[in-house]
């Protein structure tokens, strides 16, 4: 029995050094935030390594402040938006990729054009429309305007264009219409790209701040990012509470990203965007 020769280690290059430095620059602020969240008041900005860590900051945020309500609101809005967006975006992407109808190219161009428009540009008219519809200070106001995502439509369209049409052709021979083809063939094939988009949609809505701050003034409708901002305004210089809230808000995003990161990379490979 012979032993396999040990594989030689790859040489350290300047690119790898730059990669390590970028990873360090990214990780250090996160590490500081976590450690500072466990420090007592007065030691938050100390430059020494913490020795007297405490969980009082987290206890205060979870008991004296309605932070669990903020977390629940963010979870509700993020999950509902993600589910509805996936359903509607898969239909739109499939229609733009497979159906032939007048104005298809124009419709796709208009969808892509919305990527050039940032939220602050349409914030005032969007709020006015929401107010006319009676959705200010409601969950509908938080959810409905956040559903459309042009990047999701684009990614799904590219994915459907990359799929062979053999199964769809066989379905048409069996008498399937567009709706049955979509439900029984296209949607099951879309699970990988839908999983990656679910992660992206969830993270985007969980971290949303400007629109929830604008449309929901009721404290019971605050999402977690607005809740963190209110901690800073309400408690002045008590940054340990702000940092504790930030750590709590980051935990779900880290879990979701770690679960879905492989799906994101695989979907980008499939659509040819990597």
UniProtKB/TrEMBL annotation:
Keyword Transport set for record: yes
Transmembrane as UniProt keyword: yes
Annotated keywords: Cell membrane, Membrane, Transmembrane, Transmembrane helix, Transport
Protein location: Cell membrane
Protein name: Binding-protein-dependent transport systems inner membrane component
ABC transmembrane type-1 domain location: 71-260
GO biological process: transmembrane transport
Membrane topology recorded in Swiss-Prot or TrEMBL: Multi-pass membrane protein
Lineage: superkingdom: Bacteria
Family annotation (Gene3D superfamilies): MetI-like (1.10.3720.10)
Cellular-component GO terms for this entry: plasma membrane
Cross-referenced CDD domains: TM_PBP2
Gene source species: Stackebrandtia nassauensis (strain DSM 44728 / CIP 108903 / NRRL B-16338 / NBRC 102104 / LLR-40K-21)
Family: Belongs to the binding-protein-dependent transport system permease family.
Regions that span the bilayer: 12-38, 75-97, 106-127, 139-160, 181-204, 239-259
């Amino acid at each position: 029995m012979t032993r396999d020769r040990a594989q030689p280690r790859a040489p350290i290059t300047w690119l790898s050094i730059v990669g390590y430095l970028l990873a360090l620059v990214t990780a250090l602020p996160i590490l500081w935030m976590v450690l500072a969240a466990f420090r007592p008041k007065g030691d938050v900005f100390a430059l020494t390594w913490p020795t007297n860590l405490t969980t009082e900051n987290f206890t205060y945020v979870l008991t004296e402040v309605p932070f669990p309500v903020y977390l629940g609101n963010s979870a509700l809005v993020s999950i509902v938006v993600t589910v509805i967006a996936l359903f509607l975006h898969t239909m739109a992407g499939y229609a733009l990729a497979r159906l032939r109808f007048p104005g298809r190219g124009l419709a796709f161009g208009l969808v892509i054009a919305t990527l050039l428009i940032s939220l602050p540009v349409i914030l005032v008219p969007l709020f006015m429309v929401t107010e006319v519809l009676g959705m200010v200070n409601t969950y509908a106001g938080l959810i409905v305007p956040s559903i459309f995502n042009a990047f999701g439509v684009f990614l799904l369209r590219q994915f459907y264009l990359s799929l062979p049409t053999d199964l769809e052709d066989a379905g048409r021979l069996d008498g399937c219409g567009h709706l049955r083809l979509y439900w029984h063939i296209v949607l099951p094939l879309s699970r990988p790209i839908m999983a990656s988009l679910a992660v992206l949609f969830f993270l985007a809505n969980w971290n949303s701040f400007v629109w929830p701050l604008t449309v929901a003034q009721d404290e019971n409708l605050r999402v977690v990012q607005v809740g963190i901002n209110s901690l800073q305004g309400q408690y002045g210089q008590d940054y340990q509470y702000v940092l504790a809230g930030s750590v709590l808000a980051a935990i779900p995003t880290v879990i979701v990203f770690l679960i879905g990161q492989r799906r994101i990379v695989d979907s980008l490979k499939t659509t040819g965007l990597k």
